[in-house]
Write a structure and sequence with these properties.
The protein is 21% helix and 25% strand. The protein is an alpha/beta fold. It is globular and about 45 Å long. The N terminus is likely disordered.
Amino acid sequence: MNEKIVIRKTGKQLLEQMDTTEVPQDGIAIWQLGQESLVIKKSGFIIYFDPYLSASPARSFAPPIQPEEIYNADYVIITHHHSDHLDPLTLKDLAIRSPQAMFICPAPHMERVVDAGIGRERIIPAQAGIKFELASGITVTPVACKHEQYITDADGNHFFLGYVIDFNGLVFYHAGDAIADQELEDALKPHQIEIACMPINGHDWRRLRNHIYGNMTFREAADMAAEIGAEMIIPMHYDMFASNTENPAYFVDYLLRYYPMLKFKMLAPGERMLYLTER
């Protein structure tokens, strides 16, 4: 038989799956779209993180969804201004197809989001350490991070942010692009994070010389998740570009050697995960 078996959904089928997935009160649904693009569904809301869905010959695989197909976004959260995180083409089409969506981005990058065609009334400028509410019982705390270094604008607003989202006790963290350090650990530890999504592609002088800014290594990501007391770690930023990647098998091996009780999940593009809280 030459019939091809397709396990993961794409396009309209994937969007329909998001719509019809029933999330238990003590759970959360997560979809991976590649790089650091994630979708989460919780408390009746669908949130897109760093949607990078433009066609590009540099991509290792085609986008699981086309931007103009996305009608179901309630919130779109941007971690920083690099084009594989703040993708103007994706944001423009998504904003048209999902007119209800609100956009959250670091305050210094608000104009970039406006330039992508999103009205200012739809943008929430985020500032490190200043918590805000999305809906009843859902709070967001932006956390400053170092993408090779901490960078701020003239008003002291950080360029690079991760986001801690508290869904009525289930605490989810998307790190964005970040290097592990004591300042980040100190900022995260009080939140009692349950699910931590972290980059593992690392950093080195060769990539920095070519203006490819670094992130946590697989060791640093695992160490950070353990230090902040996370129940589960989801690795990101290892699957998209051949020039800026890491073998995730090293990450798994390190976890099994040093943190065998720390749960993890590697998601393929288009894959859904349903998680029930352990707390």
